[in-house]
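Q: How would the structure tokens look for this protein?
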Amino acid sequence: MTVLSKSGAAVAGVLAIVVGGGCASSWPAPREQTRADAITADRVYAALNADPVYYYRHVDVRVDGGVTYLSGYIWSADALYEAKRVAAAVPGVTRVVNQTELERNGDRGGGHSGSG
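A: Here is the predicted structure in token form.
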């Protein structure tokens, strides 16, 4: 059992308030962050799918703490740059990380498939 004097108890109480209050206001609870990330991911999907020029149905979006990860397939370098620009413009996105693969004419960069 720990025994505190009145002054020790007062200091411990103030310290608990400062430490506890600081954490609660500095970092969102994991549940709140997960919800915010899901909303941001939905907004990024919507923004990509609203693009009138490029087809982004093969792009997956994952958001973790505001950092947005784009993965899947994109057909041109221009489409990749536009996807990153579109995602970065969405509220809640703090950074965009490209994890996509460039696919040209249905070829994912594999070896020659013909004979000879």
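Residues 4 and 10 are 9 Å apart (CA to CA).

The longest strand covers residues 67-74.

Upvote if useful.
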